[in-house]
Amino acid sequence: MLIKNAELEGRRPIDLRCQSGVICEMGDTIKPLPGETVINAGGGALLPGLHDHHIHLHAFAASHSSVVCGPPRVANLKQLAEVLSDVGGSGWIRGIAYHGSVAGDIDRWQLDDLVSDRPLRIQHRSGKLWIVNTAAADILELEKHRELEGVECDDSGRPNGRLFRLDEWLRKHIGSPGPPDVERVSKQLASYGVTGITDATPGNSGEELAIFKTAIEGNRLLQRVLLMGDMDLPLASHSLIERGAYKVLLDEHKLPRVEQLTQQITQAHQQQRPIAIHCVTRTELVFALSTLLEAGHYPGDRIEHASVTPDEVLPLLREARVAVVTQHGFIAERGDQYLREVEPQYQEVLYRGRAFVEAGVPLAGSSDAPYGSADPWFAMRVAVNRKSGSGDYLGRGESLTPEQALALYTSPAGSPGAPARTIEIGQTADLCLLDRSWREARSRLVHRDVLATVKHGEPIYQR
Fold first, then answer.
1. Any idea what the Cα angle at residue 298 is, between residues 297 and 299, rounded to 5°?
2. pLDDT-based confidence at 179, cuts 50/70/90?
3. Which architecture does CATH list for 66-174?
4. Do residues 274 and 307 touch, judged by C-beta distance below 8 A?
5. With contact defined as beta carbons under 8 Å apart, do 453 and 18 qualify?
6. Domain 50-58+180-420 -> CATH class
7. Whether 22 contacts 457, CB under 8 Å
8. How do residues 250-278 score in pLDDT, each as one tens digit?
9. Tell me, what's the pLDDT at 10?
10. Do residues 285 and 309 make contact, with C-beta atoms less than 8 angstroms apart?
């Protein structure tokens, strides 16, 4: 494949040839070979392919057949009833993105008032809670599982339909025919310039690894995959899949013993795997860093989200030598709610940007889709402008430059926040080609500027 007339790092247009998945030739004028695929960049900027460092691909695919049950589309109980009543067909209704601002901490009996004639399950926006109605509770036989950790019960001991961290159990008891097809969302990501993803689902095991491999081999999954998962996740046997970090979820109100988490980290490191720790509160972050310092460093160790990071925690992050993988898009998607509900002293330290960079903490960007927009250009814009949905600033001093925002998505998959991948002879040909110069694109940061996406030397998207 040959790309002609591309702008590279602001320099005059160059030509670039890819063969066998790598960049093999670069120059002022390269003549096409017979039958060679040629893309005319027209002076557009050529960038490394983008990498989403934290996504949940199967959940993202499932979201396309789900009902959005939270802000901004649904703001109150009346609107929730309306969107649920609009669902046609029969069988299960799957809702997503619920938040307590709609109708509080709803339970099965409140859901019965909305839908009683078919099973309903609604996922909280945080991803850690499902709420089911009575029809669903009967199918799941919750009364028989009231002692299961994560099944919440009311004061009389009856399961109230609120299920915490029970995704895998829920899937098995629903009798799902299998994971949703990822082809549609993979093409969507390709149109954004995304050539690689890190799937951060903690329950990924050998079964999910095989599913991802089959999707890649069937050309339904177009991106490279770094797969996080549980301690038993095996090594991958495919060139486009790599085993990633052991994923740990922390809940502030139910933290493990320090010795337990330290042992988990040590076991992961002994497997030559980094650790990825989910931290959305200050307490979770301090606890995670204290344990990481006790266990010792392994290359690729990372903190997911770092939603709240006060100044005094920055030295601990640097000392622990971990990367932060965060989601600046949440500032726009949830910022107005943060401004109403988060204590003022913490509003300025939400999903930080500049503070991490200036402290020397490796920083990478991600979508957390389906819990946030999958568009990396949207997140880049927010990392630069720091505006909520209504246009109010949130942590304005944390603003990044467009170049720093782009770098959040061009670091290597296994080293988030490391220096960006380079475009030079001998490098893997994962590329994102824009339809205009970077000078123009940097002021827009929109996915509509993506002209073509190339993975392993082959176009996976072309406009």
1. 125
2. confident
3. Roll (3.10)
4. no
5. no
6. alpha beta
7. yes
8. 999 889 999 999 999 999 999 999 999 99
9. 84
10. yes
Query: Where does 1-49+421-463 sit in CATH, by number?
Result: 2.30.40.10
In DSSP terms, 454 is beta-bridged to: 431, 459
Question: Scanning the structure block, which residue is given the tokens 């390709």?
Answer: 190
DSSP code per residue over 395-418: SGGG---HHHHHHTTTS-TTSTTS
Q: Which of 115, 156, 147 is nearest to 134 (CA)?
A: 115
Residue type, 136: A
Give the span between the Cα atoms of 207 and 204, in whole angstroms: 8
CA nearest 416: which of 302, 313, 269?
A: 302
pLDDT tens, residue by residue, 123-132:
998 888 999 9
Residue 248's identity, in one-letter code, is V
DSSP 309-361: --GGGHHHHHHHT-EEEE-THHHHHHHHHHHHHS-HHHHTTBS-SHHHHHHT-
Mark out the alpha helices in 123-217 (DSSP H runs): 134-140, 167-174, 183-191, 206-217
* E-assigned strand segments in 142-268: 151-153, 159-164, 194-199, 224-229, 241-249
pTM value surpassing 0.90: yes
Q: Which residues contact 393 (CB under 8 A, 6 or more apart)?
A: 386, 387
Query: Cα(323)–Cα(363) distance, rounded to whole angstroms?
Result: 6
The distance in angstroms from the start CA to the end CA of the chain is: 16
Main-chain phi, psi angles of 280, to 5 degrees = -115, -5
**Contact (Cβ atoms closer than 8 angstroms) between residue 224 and residue 430:** yes
Between residues 276 and 91, the one the model is more confident about: 276
Count of other CB atoms within 10 angstroms of residue 85: 9
- With beta carbons less than 8 A apart as the criterion, state whether 269 and 242 touch: no
Per-residue pLDDT of 264-321, as tens digits, reads 999 999 999 999 999 999 999 999 999 999 999 999 999 999 999 999 999 999 999 9
Q: Across the chain, how many H-helices and E-strands are there?
A: 17, 22
Length of the chain: 463
The sheet with strand 129-132 has its strands ordered as: 67-68, 93-98, 120-124, 129-132, 159-164, 151-153
Q: Where are the domains of the chain?
A: 1-49+421-463, 50-58+180-420, 66-174
What single DSSP character describes residue 232? T
**Integer Cα distance of 230 and 248 in angstroms:** 8
Tokens at 253, concatenated: 């109100």
